[in-house]
Amino acid sequence: MDKTPFAGLTRLAPNDPLSTDNSSFQAKNPSITDRLLQIGALTHRHNALPALGNPSGYAPLVSVYASGGSIPADTQVSVGFTLNNGTGGETELSDVTTVSTLPPYNPPASPITAVVDYSAGTLLAGTYYYAVTLVDGVGGETALGPYATGDRLPGYANGRVILTGLDDDFGVDGAVAWRLFRAIGGGEFQFLATGTSDSFTDDGSVAVDCAVLPPDDFNGTTNEGNRLEVIVPSGALISEAETFNVYLCTDGDFTTGALVGTFAVASAMTIINVTSLALGAGSPPEVSSCIPGAHKIDPDSELLEWHWKRPVATVGDLPTGSAAEAGDVRVVLSDSDPWIYDQAASGWVLFSTGGISQVQKVGGATYSSRTKMRFEA
Questions:
Q1: 3-class SS at 274?
Q2: Which are the contacts of 14, defined by CB distance < 8 A and separation ≥ 6?
Q3: 101 CB contacts (<8 Å, ≥6 apart)?
Q4: Rounded to an integer, what distance in angstroms lies between the CA atom of residue 228 and that of residue 241?
Q5: I need a labelling partner for 201 at 20 to 30 A (CA). Which of 101, 182, 215, 344 fits?
Q6: How far apart are CA 148 and CA 127, in angstroms?
Q7: Strand, helix or coil at 330?
Q8: DSSP conformational letter for 114
Q9: Per-residue pLDDT tens for 250-306?
Q10: Quick one: which of 290, 235, 228 has its CA closest to 268?
Q11: Which residues on adjacent β-strands are paired with residue 332?
């Protein structure tokens, strides 16, 4: 397998399978060919403009924030951008910036302490289990930490369980509160209370919320609300660029749907917020689809059977000899008059609706005053 030198089309060797080069023979070759046909049929211009250059040497600035979005924890994200010209061309991808969101909080590692006390409280006899989770302040929660057991024995008028060590793991990841869960006997853990202090007393006055259970995933849901701030450097946006595309991926491969969006060049050096991994279907081209404009057409030699030629400054600048053909028309800028080369008259004549009014002979050295006859309605 190799690639064609201009458009980068995949050429398969006789024994190459169609899956070679990520199946680009089937998936990319038609798109590249279609783009070149579009240029030839619709957007081809003889303006000699250079092709839009690839933004190599430039990379977006990407910052991670733990709130305001839904990008998961512990996720590696790569971001790049391309430039677009005004005729549908798109450059190759810029240098890529890769960042990672923070990992989820660890579940509490330190066991809490449960002490049964019979001096007060209305807890009934039974075996009580307690464990805490940690929360991050933006809706995320860890899995349960180690549980503590309190056996409230029968035969006492009162009963309560005093819990301590609830905030022992606050400093590990930066949790802002704990959530306490309780189970009785072989039942499931249900939400009992939340707080920030070291202790809590379960005296029977607070009922559990049966509908609120701890996360069942060991990783919990902390640090799941990430967003990115992306800034595209203005130095990459050369004057021929009209817009730019921002692309993002989590696997280092931008070939799947990876389009964040298309932005005006005025958005360079401004913050683009990326709040989720819900991306558009677009992907950056493997080979730039920006091509230069064809060379400018010389109307004097390349426009066949088209006799309106470049204007000249004065009558004395009208070309002679082989540089002029019968029927050639040129405007003399000093007088804004059109002149036509009349081979029968062996020279340039002032073009008018009323006939020839003045002849500038081929090779004539002088040009005197004349009666001007202009176009009339």
A1: strand
A2: none
A3: 64, 66, 71, 72, 73, 74, 75, 77, 223, 226
A4: 25
A5: 215
A6: 10
A7: strand
A8: E
A9: 998 998 899 999 999 988 999 999 999 999 999 999 888 887 777 788 777 777 778
A10: 235
A11: 312, 337
